[in-house]
Amino acid sequence: MARIKPQALLIQSKKKKGPTRINVTTILFCNLIVLLILLSLIATYRHWFQRSREQTGIGLSKFEHVDEIVDSKKYDLPGYAVLNTSKGYITIELFKDGSPETVDKFLDLCQKGHFKGMPFHHVIKNYVILGGHSQGLGGIEDWTSKGKLRGRLTTRSSGIPKHEAFMLGTTKVKEDSKAFQLFITTAPIPDLNDKLFVFGRVIKGEDVVQEIEEVDTDEHYQPKSPVLIIDVMLQQEI
């Protein structure tokens, strides 16, 4: 077997290819690309996170603003009504929180002049005085004819007294303007709790209510001389 010369072996070893070496510059360049990608992802995440927080904040502020508008409108409503009657002035505090729908209806009718010239067409001593454009008793004929004046005072769960003396209410009937009558109680009348919505109370002018209560009436409890609501003035404060 022929022997290979050392010089030939050296030449053959030089011809063999060793493992490929990666240039340092290439490694640095790849690391730089990876770093740029990571920074780009972080920046994108921060951008969308901040945008999401801003949109949420805007949405919440809008809801808060709407709530503020609703509350401001609610408290901008007049809280008092002054009935200018032919016997004098009766000042009434309106239950804006306890009876908001009835108060809104009352205020709307006041602005339309519904109560101007309205008569108190029924006066029942130790019971109620009733004003309205309709001469009927608003569906409480049986209650008034029986003269149910007994029973203890009841109150609503909201804390608003229902039918003490000098409370302002209206009948629970269909909401047309002629059906909206005004009851001012002159004694506690719990028997009418299912018939009336109470939406205010007299805080000044109780003597005027009592004077109206003392007018002469016929056998149907109708005043012999007209007693009128001349006008209604709405006020924020008194």
From TrEMBL:
InterPro entries recorded: Cyclophilin-like_dom_sf, Cyclophilin-type_PPIase_dom
Q: What keywords tag this UniProt record?
A: Chaperone, Isomerase, Membrane, Rotamase, Transit peptide, Transmembrane, Transmembrane helix
| Top-level taxonomic group | Eukaryota
Tell me the CDD domains matching this sequence: cyclophilin
Catalysed reaction, written as an equation: [protein]-peptidylproline (omega=180) = [protein]-peptidylproline (omega=0)
Give every PPIase cyclophilin-type domain span: 77-234
In alphabetical order, the GO MF annotations are: peptidyl-prolyl cis-trans isomerase activity
Parts of the chain that traverse the membrane: 21-45
Q: What is its EC number?
A: 5.2.1.8
| Family per similarity comment | Belongs to the cyclophilin-type PPIase family.
Purpose of the protein: PPIases accelerate the folding of proteins. It catalyzes the cis-trans isomerization of proline imidic peptide bonds in oligopeptides.
State the protein's name.
Peptidyl-prolyl cis-trans isomerase
What species does this protein belong to?
Durio zibethinus
Classification from the root reads: Eukaryota, Viridiplantae, Streptophyta, Embryophyta, Tracheophyta
